[in-house]
Design brief:
By secondary structure, the chain is mainly β. It is built from no helices and 25 strands. It has a nine-stranded mixed β-sheet with strand order 1-4-7-10-13-16-19-21-22, with no helix packed on it. Strands 2-5-8-11-14-17-20 form a seven-stranded parallel β-sheet, with no helix packed on it. The radius of gyration is 18 Å and the shape is globular. It starts with a strand and ends with a strand.
């Protein structure tokens, strides 16, 4: 069963997966594809043609613009913004309003299991690797390797994280989780 709050605006041409919940004042545009068992929190904007995988949690007031693909099991914290235009302008060089044909969508991908901390900005054209973790308030300007912990402005690597989210510690040639004891090969 799908739940859509009465104040949410969901295009009849959007695909909403089973058991997905869409909360207050969210807007889901045409041809957006949301997977099964997602939580779309208050005030989220999901642009046309955006893809969100299964089991994702999208926090309050997140903006996800066309060109973004979010894979399964991704967490996106409140107030995250995914930009999609590397050279944003409101007008052309001749000072005419820009239209759809006047700009190029740049693809952004968030891989399976990754987490994006609250208030982060993801610039267009980056790939965030599997199980990576972006610290709150970060500005991600380049690709993030799988299991990497990055934060800051611009976001820089500060180690690696486990599937459980704990920061990994070196063990021989690999990495080990001090919490769940998993060994991760980076």
């Amino acid at each position: 069963m799908i739940y859509i709050h009465p104040t949410a605006e969901v295009s009849k041409n959007a695909h909403i997966g089973e058991r997905t919940k869409i909360w207050h004042h969210a807007q889901i545009r045409e041809h957006a594809r949301l997977g099964n068992s997602c939580i779309i929190a208050k005030g989220v904007y999901i642009d046309h043609d955006v893809i969100v995988g299964n089991n994702c949690k999208i926090g309050n007031y997140v903006s996800i613009y066309v060109g973004v693909t979010i894979e399964d099991g991704v967490f996106v914290g409140p107030h995250v913004c995914f930009a999609n235009d590397k050279v944003p302008r409101a007008v052309t060089p001749k000072e005419k309003p820009k239209g759809v044909k006047d700009w190029v969508v740049t693809k952004t991908v968030v891989k399976r299991g990754a987490s994006v901390g609250a208030g982060s900005v993801i610039v267009p054209g980056v790939t965030i690797g599997e199980w990576a973790m972006i610290g709150a308030g970060s500005v991600v300007t380049r690709d993030v390797a799988r299991h990497s912990l990055v934060y800051g402005n611009p976001a820089r690597a500060h180690g690696y994280v486990c599937l459980c989210g704990a920061k990994l510690v070196k063990k021989g040639v690999g990495q080990m989780c001090p919490v769940c004891k998993a060994e991760i090969s980076i």
